[in-house]
TrEMBL record:
This is Salicylate hydroxylase. It comes from Chitinasiproducens palmae. Its cofactor is FAD. The keyword Flavoprotein applies. InterPro entries: FAD-bd (IPR002938), FAD-dep_Monooxygenase_BioMet (IPR050493), FAD/NAD-bd_sf (IPR036188). GO terms for molecular function: FAD binding; monooxygenase activity.
Length: 403
């Protein structure tokens, strides 16, 4: 007779919280270990694309998300200097029909809070840093900084791009600095200003691009301003920059952006790192999820979405396979690895298209956008319709599929 599984999740970010909530909904015992002293997320926005929203709805979080989110009209490509539109991909009123869920913009802290509402209240251990993991017979053990240990049927490393669990399983290897850094800021507004359109705006310029969008039901604008650099940038959500540095880096860009940047009181900077796709994620009773196994450039806005999808699929696979951890991990990886690999590689490729240096190359790219938009606006611009069409909620573990 199968007994209740016990799963330990290392890392309580967006991926770890989504997994813990999904496991609890499968009736699986879960413990979540987070090194920070409090749950929370940085002050930044995040695009929750239809593929992620489908999962959040399946977890029962659809209404809570819609309550705090902003519904953008379109994804719009704009020239960095003139604001001339190069593509327009309609979203509001279209995504539900095309992909089965809307496209939302949300504040990361709001999203994380929503996810923690489905994590059992006694499941989380804060201020707990994992330093090692090991296989022991048919169990996995996580070891923490204070010397304490936790034994479970499965340990999942959801501990981000510098994952300790990944290093212990597959060896230490530094993530790759991609030659891009980004500035991030959230600018509050009492009312939506006329100089920020209600879209996800992609301002494309030479060696750089800027994405702006509303969060918090239009009460704030999120800025992600990416610039190529040879200088190493500290990788932290908390590396301080300044309004002056942001304005200086994007000098000469469109006046609407300058007006927005001038209102940014608190600016952070962040080096962008990724890794090559892996060929496997698991060893014995230990596996990985989210940025720990597939960190990616944010150019398709998919890192958190992929982590949420992973969490849902892994929980469903474990729920279906009972005590057969090996089969559960086999189905999890078979479902998730090819998809995340493609998203990782295409995210990298987008950086090159967004940052074309010469006016001639930009013109040529924009003409291609125009032509593709004419055929199908969903398949132009950032070209992510194939990402949004996927439904993790359709995942059928083999045990169920065969039944
Ligand atoms: C500029 C930018 C914009 C982005 N925009 C989007 C977007 O619009 N849409 C989208 O879907 N994604 C976006 N992303 C990607 C997204 O932020 C990440 O992919 C996502 O946060 C990954 O979630 P995660 O849970 O795997 O890892 P993380 O969010 O890194 O969480 C890891 C957690 O593990 C904890 N931890 C680490 N080590 C340990 C340890 N040893 N012991 C215990 N706990 C530990 C950390 O404190 C953290 O809480 C963006 C990323 C960037 C940089």
């Amino acid at each position: 007779m199968s007994r209740t599984l016990r799963v330990g999740v290392i890392g309580g970010g967006i991926g770890g919280a989504a997994l813990a909530g999904a496991l609890a909904q499968q009736g699986i015992e879960v413990r979540l270990f987070e090194r920070a002293s409090a749950f929370g997320e940085v002050g930044a926005g995040i695009q929750m694309t239809p593929n992620a929203v489908k999962v959040l709805r399946a977890l029962g979080l659809g209404d809570a998300l819609a309550d705090v989110a902003f519904l953008p009209q379109a994804i719009v490509g704009r020239d960095w200097e003139t604001a001339r539109e190069s593509f327009r991909t309609p979203l509001a009123g279209v995504c539900e029909e095309l992909y089965g869920a809307p496209f939302f913009h949300v504040h990361r802290a709001d999203l994380h809070h929503i996810l923690t509402t489905i994590v059992p209240s006694d499941a989380a251990r804060l201020s707990t840093t994992c330093v090692d993991v090991r296989q022991e017979d048919d169990k996995a053990v996580a070891v923490f900084e204070d010397g304490s240990e936790f034994e479970a049927d499965l340990i999942v490393g959801a501990d981000g791009v510098r994952s300790v669990v990944r290093a212990k399983l597959f060896g230490q290897e530094a993530p790759r600095f991609t030659g891009n850094m980004c500035f991030r800021a959230v600018v509050p507004f009492d009312a939506m200003p006329a100089f920020v359109s209600p879209d996800s705006s992609f301002w494309l310029g030479p060696h750089a691009h800027v994405v702006t969008y509303y969060v918090r039901r239009g009460k704030a604008v999120n800025i992600v301003a990416v610039a190529e650099t040879e200088n190493w940038v500290e990788e932290s959500w908390h590396a301080k920059s300044s309004r002056e540095e942001l304005l200086a880096t994007f000098e000469g860009w469109h006046p609407n952006l300058q007006r927005l940047f001038e209102r940014a009181d608190s600016v952070f900077k962040w080096g962008l790192f990724d890794r090559d796709p892996m060929t496997e994620w698991s060893r014995g009773n230990i596996t990985l999820l989210g940025d720990a196994c597939h960190p990616m450039l944010p150019f398709l806005s998919q890192g958190a979405a992929m982590a949420i999808e992973d969490g849902y699929v892994l929980a469903k696979s474990l729920g279906a396979h009972g005590n057969d951890i090996a089969s559960a991990l086999r189905d999890y990886q078979a479902e998730r690895l090819p998809r995340t690999r493609r998203v990782q590689l295409e995210s990298r490729a987008r950086g090159k298209t967004y940052h074309l240096p010469s006016a001639f190359a930009q013109r040529k790219r924009d003409l291609i956008y125009k032509f593709k938009s004419y055929l199908n606006p969903q398949a132009s611009g950032i070209q992510a319709n194939w990402v949004y069409a996927y439904s993790a909620t359709d995942f059928a573990p083999r045990a169920l599929a065969a039944a």
